[in-house]
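Minutes, project check-in
Item: structure for the 109-residue chain
Input as provided by the requester:
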Amino acid sequence: MKYVFRRCAVLFIVVCLAAPAVPQRGGAGRRGGSDEEDVTLPNGKSQRDEILKAEYQQNLKDAADLIDLAQQLKLDLEKNDRYVVSMGTIKKTDDIEKLVKRIRGRLRH
């Protein structure tokens, strides 16, 4: 009985994590439509390309920050010899979650 419960719990977690990655059916996507007219900036470059380039650079910066926070979190958890964590450690997990949401939001849109 334990194994059935564990399998159901694992399956539920996987479905919850994978559900946002499944594209929704229905309306047309925001990008890639042939009706969209690309705006050219005064320097001759495509506005869409410049936005994508800026988002890419921000994703790289946020990913580097995410790695730093994850390493700090790991060190904090290893440093604690008891089963109690500090508020600073919990704050780091919140910061990690915010960074992940920002990266995911830019990648989806």
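Outcome recorded: Residues 47-109 form one domain.
No further action items on this chain.
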